[in-house]
Sequence to fold (391 residues):
Amino acid sequence: MNVTRRLIRICKRFVNTEAKCQDRPEWIKPIGYQTAVSVYNPITRCKVPLILKTENVLKWYICGPTVYDSAHIGHATTYIRSDIIRRILSDYFNIDVLLVMGITDIDDKIIKCSIESGKDFKTLSRHFETEFYADMNKLNIREPYLYCRVTDYIPQIIHFVKELLARDYGYVTKDGSVCFDTNKYNKYGKLRTPVPDAVKSQHPDKKSALDFALWKASKDNEPSWKCPWGRGRPGWHIECSAIASAVFGNSVDMHSGGIDLAFPHHENEEAQSCCYHNVDQWVNYWLHCGHLSLKGDIKMSKSLKNTISIQNYLENYSANHLRMLCLLSHYRNGIEFSDEVMQNAVLVTKKFDNFISDCDNYVAGKFETGEIDENLLLTVNNQFFILLETD
Fold:
């Protein structure tokens, strides 16, 4: 029974959220099919009912990797946490989850690495994309319904930008880039109060520091595509909007990623997509996972060169150890990674492994024990699932 109580405490910690809503009217309650699930809403800052546009089908878009380097365990915890939530929704609540993941295979960092390595950007990105799929498989993360590469959606992205220009939500700069005009969208700042970049900029022709690139004019020898306003490549934010819109249309049930993506990435996605589809709300539910940091609250980042690759991690610990580490905290909270913290995850995992082994041996008749009160066991089991459903 101690193991069962421990599992209940873990799951309560994982799904627990604030009980009281703040008065933030920006979120629009969807019209559709009610589920038995409540989810935390970062706009209202409280739990709200999960309502699906299509009965028993959750349309979920998740921001995937930028494939210029190996994925690290900070990335892994975001995908593991999302996978845990997905499994609960599909396996316990019987919701059909259509998960689509975007793969950024053209980007400033990819171009930089391509130049430095002397490899074609496609060769470079495909290598790390394949490696990413292998890493996710080793971590027992379920494959999404679709993987969508940015370079496979260039026509849809160009059309998206063209429509925003036609509706006066964008403007072309002197060099042929296209920026989104945030002053034309009066709902900007749904997810977080906008904070202009300290440096206006990387693009001197922006009307506002908050304006962001929809399309970047190409430089010498950079990968580029032809469009009505000149050759170039997509801006970062437009990629996810165009892909998710191409797959799901003018409404997405759920959109997720790391907490660092809330602003500006997800904010910009929501703004341009609402303008493109002429709707007041494009994503109904945003899900943001907390960061994994090193001891001392030091961010794990490729730019700081302090990352631990998934492959290196698996030389010392198992996939289940990392999953247990994620289960031991709420999905929105940060995780501190250290050997001490991991040893705790290892010990908890071992308790569950031993418990399951004892159960298997008992069922197989290999484990002699006293009488088991099956009614009591069933009651505890039901209480556990009630806690999952209501907390």
User: Anything to note?
Assistant: The radius of gyration is 23 Å. The CA atoms of residues 298 and 304 lie 10 Å apart.
